[in-house]
Write a structure and sequence with these properties.
Order of helices and strands: EEHHHHH
Strand content: under 5%
Number of domains: 2
Helix content: over 70%
Length: about 210
Protein backbone atom coordinates (compact mmCIF):
# COMPACT_ATOMS: atom_id res chain seq x y z
CA UNK A 1 0.00 0.00 0.00
CA UNK A 2 1.40 3.39 -0.97
CA UNK A 3 1.92 6.00 1.70
CA UNK A 4 -0.06 9.23 1.57
CA UNK A 5 2.34 11.87 2.80
CA UNK A 6 0.52 14.88 4.20
CA UNK A 7 0.98 18.02 6.26
CA UNK A 8 -1.90 18.42 8.70
CA UNK A 9 -4.45 16.90 6.39
CA UNK A 10 -3.01 18.39 3.18
CA UNK A 11 -1.72 15.61 0.95
CA UNK A 12 1.38 15.72 -1.22
CA UNK A 13 -0.84 15.92 -4.30
CA UNK A 14 -2.54 19.07 -3.02
CA UNK A 15 0.89 20.69 -2.75
CA UNK A 16 1.84 19.44 -6.21
CA UNK A 17 -1.42 20.66 -7.76
CA UNK A 18 -1.06 24.10 -6.17
CA UNK A 19 2.45 24.63 -7.53
CA UNK A 20 1.54 23.20 -10.93
CA UNK A 21 -1.35 25.66 -11.30
CA UNK A 22 0.78 28.52 -10.00
CA UNK A 23 3.55 27.59 -12.47
CA UNK A 24 1.11 27.47 -15.38
CA UNK A 25 -0.47 30.85 -14.57
CA UNK A 26 2.94 32.45 -14.09
CA UNK A 27 4.11 30.91 -17.36
CA UNK A 28 1.13 32.43 -19.20
CA UNK A 29 1.66 35.80 -17.53
CA UNK A 30 5.34 36.20 -18.39
CA UNK A 31 5.00 34.48 -21.75
CA UNK A 32 2.42 37.06 -22.74
CA UNK A 33 4.52 39.89 -21.27
CA UNK A 34 7.70 38.92 -23.13
CA UNK A 35 5.88 37.50 -26.17
CA UNK A 36 8.23 34.56 -25.67
CA UNK A 37 6.66 31.52 -24.03
CA UNK A 38 9.81 29.42 -24.30
CA UNK A 39 11.76 31.99 -22.31
CA UNK A 40 8.93 32.22 -19.77
CA UNK A 41 8.94 28.43 -19.36
CA UNK A 42 12.71 28.27 -18.91
CA UNK A 43 12.69 31.21 -16.53
CA UNK A 44 10.01 29.58 -14.39
CA UNK A 45 11.99 26.34 -14.31
CA UNK A 46 14.76 28.33 -12.64
CA UNK A 47 12.56 30.47 -10.42
CA UNK A 48 10.03 27.98 -9.09
CA UNK A 49 12.41 25.68 -7.21
CA UNK A 50 13.62 28.83 -5.46
CA UNK A 51 10.03 29.88 -4.66
CA UNK A 52 9.23 26.43 -3.30
CA UNK A 53 12.41 26.16 -1.23
CA UNK A 54 11.89 29.58 0.35
CA UNK A 55 8.21 29.01 1.09
CA UNK A 56 8.68 25.64 2.76
CA UNK A 57 11.77 26.80 4.62
CA UNK A 58 9.70 29.66 6.00
CA UNK A 59 6.53 27.79 6.99
CA UNK A 60 8.12 24.56 8.23
CA UNK A 61 11.40 25.81 9.73
CA UNK A 62 11.56 29.55 10.42
CA UNK A 63 7.99 30.10 11.58
CA UNK A 64 7.78 27.17 14.05
CA UNK A 65 11.29 27.67 15.44
CA UNK A 66 11.43 31.46 15.55
CA UNK A 67 8.21 33.32 14.78
CA UNK A 68 5.91 31.17 16.93
CA UNK A 69 8.43 31.41 19.77
CA UNK A 70 8.35 35.22 19.53
CA UNK A 71 11.95 35.47 18.32
CA UNK A 72 10.93 38.19 15.91
CA UNK A 73 14.29 39.82 15.23
CA UNK A 74 15.96 36.50 14.47
CA UNK A 75 13.07 35.57 12.20
CA UNK A 76 13.26 38.83 10.22
CA UNK A 77 17.04 38.60 9.85
CA UNK A 78 16.95 34.99 8.67
CA UNK A 79 14.06 35.44 6.26
CA UNK A 80 15.74 38.45 4.64
CA UNK A 81 19.08 36.61 4.49
CA UNK A 82 17.39 33.56 2.97
CA UNK A 83 15.65 35.63 0.32
CA UNK A 84 18.87 37.47 -0.53
CA UNK A 85 20.76 34.19 -0.83
CA UNK A 86 18.13 32.80 -3.19
CA UNK A 87 18.26 35.98 -5.29
CA UNK A 88 22.01 35.44 -5.68
CA UNK A 89 21.38 31.83 -6.72
CA UNK A 90 18.67 32.90 -9.16
CA UNK A 91 20.92 35.57 -10.69
CA UNK A 92 23.74 33.12 -11.33
CA UNK A 93 21.49 30.39 -12.71
CA UNK A 94 19.74 32.83 -15.02
CA UNK A 95 22.99 34.44 -16.15
CA UNK A 96 24.81 31.18 -16.90
CA UNK A 97 21.94 29.01 -18.12
CA UNK A 98 19.40 31.30 -19.72
CA UNK A 99 20.27 34.90 -20.52
CA UNK A 100 23.04 37.32 -19.62
CA UNK A 101 20.34 39.98 -19.35
CA UNK A 102 18.94 38.56 -16.14
CA UNK A 103 16.18 41.15 -15.83
CA UNK A 104 14.57 41.58 -19.26
CA UNK A 105 11.50 43.25 -17.76
CA UNK A 106 13.73 45.80 -16.03
CA UNK A 107 14.28 49.39 -17.21
CA UNK A 108 17.78 48.68 -18.57
CA UNK A 109 19.87 45.70 -19.62
CA UNK A 110 21.03 44.02 -16.42
CA UNK A 111 24.01 41.68 -16.40
CA UNK A 112 25.23 42.46 -12.88
CA UNK A 113 23.53 42.36 -9.50
CA UNK A 114 22.41 45.95 -9.29
CA UNK A 115 20.64 47.37 -6.26
CA UNK A 116 17.38 47.79 -8.19
CA UNK A 117 17.52 44.19 -9.41
CA UNK A 118 18.12 42.80 -5.93
CA UNK A 119 15.31 44.88 -4.39
CA UNK A 120 12.84 43.93 -7.13
CA UNK A 121 13.68 40.22 -6.90
CA UNK A 122 13.49 40.22 -3.09
CA UNK A 123 10.10 41.93 -3.14
CA UNK A 124 8.90 39.36 -5.67
CA UNK A 125 10.08 36.47 -3.50
CA UNK A 126 8.54 38.08 -0.43
CA UNK A 127 5.22 38.34 -2.26
CA UNK A 128 5.27 34.62 -3.06
CA UNK A 129 6.25 33.71 0.51
CA UNK A 130 3.48 35.88 1.95
CA UNK A 131 0.88 34.42 -0.41
CA UNK A 132 1.81 30.80 0.34
CA UNK A 133 2.13 31.48 4.08
CA UNK A 134 -1.35 33.01 4.14
CA UNK A 135 -2.75 29.85 2.54
CA UNK A 136 -0.86 27.66 5.02
CA UNK A 137 -2.05 29.65 8.04
CA UNK A 138 -5.64 29.53 6.79
CA UNK A 139 -5.48 25.77 6.23
CA UNK A 140 -3.95 25.25 9.68
CA UNK A 141 -6.73 27.33 11.25
CA UNK A 142 -9.41 25.31 9.47
CA UNK A 143 -7.73 22.05 10.48
CA UNK A 144 -7.35 23.14 14.10
CA UNK A 145 -10.94 24.35 14.24
CA UNK A 146 -12.15 20.99 12.92
CA UNK A 147 -9.96 19.14 15.41
CA UNK A 148 -11.29 21.20 18.33
CA UNK A 149 -14.89 20.54 17.25
CA UNK A 150 -14.19 16.82 17.05
CA UNK A 151 -12.58 16.84 20.51
CA UNK A 152 -15.56 18.73 21.93
CA UNK A 153 -17.91 16.17 20.39
CA UNK A 154 -15.89 13.30 21.86
CA UNK A 155 -15.84 15.02 25.25
CA UNK A 156 -19.61 15.52 25.13
CA UNK A 157 -20.19 11.88 24.23
CA UNK A 158 -17.86 10.77 27.02
CA UNK A 159 -19.65 12.94 29.56
CA UNK A 160 -22.99 11.59 28.37
CA UNK A 161 -21.80 8.00 28.73
CA UNK A 162 -20.49 8.79 32.20
CA UNK A 163 -23.81 10.38 33.13
CA UNK A 164 -25.70 7.36 31.84
CA UNK A 165 -23.49 4.99 33.80
CA UNK A 166 -24.02 7.02 36.97
CA UNK A 167 -27.76 7.47 36.59
CA UNK A 168 -28.73 3.99 35.44
CA UNK A 169 -27.90 1.84 38.50
CA UNK A 170 -29.19 4.11 41.24
CA UNK A 171 -31.92 6.13 39.59
CA UNK A 172 -33.72 3.24 37.93
CA UNK A 173 -33.60 1.02 41.00
CA UNK A 174 -35.03 3.77 43.17
CA UNK A 175 -37.71 4.54 40.58
CA UNK A 176 -38.68 0.88 40.29
CA UNK A 177 -38.93 0.60 44.07
CA UNK A 178 -41.20 3.64 44.15
CA UNK A 179 -43.37 2.22 41.38
CA UNK A 180 -43.57 -1.08 43.24
CA UNK A 181 -44.69 0.72 46.40
CA UNK A 182 -47.35 2.62 44.44
CA UNK A 183 -48.50 -0.60 42.77
CA UNK A 184 -48.92 -2.28 46.15
CA UNK A 185 -51.02 0.68 47.23
CA UNK A 186 -52.91 0.47 43.90
CA UNK A 187 -52.17 4.13 43.27
CA UNK A 188 -53.53 5.79 40.12
CA UNK A 189 -50.07 7.32 39.54
CA UNK A 190 -48.53 3.92 38.79
CA UNK A 191 -49.35 3.73 35.02
CA UNK A 192 -48.12 7.29 34.43
CA UNK A 193 -44.85 6.62 36.24
CA UNK A 194 -44.30 3.44 34.25
CA UNK A 195 -44.82 5.35 30.99
CA UNK A 196 -42.44 8.12 32.11
CA UNK A 197 -39.82 5.57 33.11
CA UNK A 198 -40.23 3.79 29.78
CA UNK A 199 -39.73 7.05 27.87
CA UNK A 200 -36.66 7.87 29.91
CA UNK A 201 -35.14 4.44 29.33
CA UNK A 202 -35.85 4.71 25.60
CA UNK A 203 -34.07 8.07 25.52
CA UNK A 204 -30.98 6.76 27.29
CA UNK A 205 -30.80 3.52 25.33
CA UNK A 206 -31.65 4.67 21.81
CA UNK A 207 -31.97 8.39 21.19
CA UNK A 208 -28.62 9.33 22.72
CA UNK A 209 -26.91 6.71 20.54
CA UNK A 210 -28.65 8.00 17.40
CA UNK A 211 -27.55 11.59 18.14
CA UNK A 212 -23.84 10.70 17.99
Amino acid sequence: MSKNYSFKGISFWHHFLFWAIYFFLNFLRWGSYHSDYLYAFQSNLIGFPIHIALCYFNIYVLMPRLLFKKMYLSYVILIIASIFLMVVVKFNLTYHLLNTNVWPEGPVVTNTMTFDYVVDMMIGELYVITFVTAIKVTMDWLYENKRVNELQKIQLETELLLLRSQISPHFFFNTLNNIYALAVEKSEKTPKLIIKLSELMRYFLYETDESK
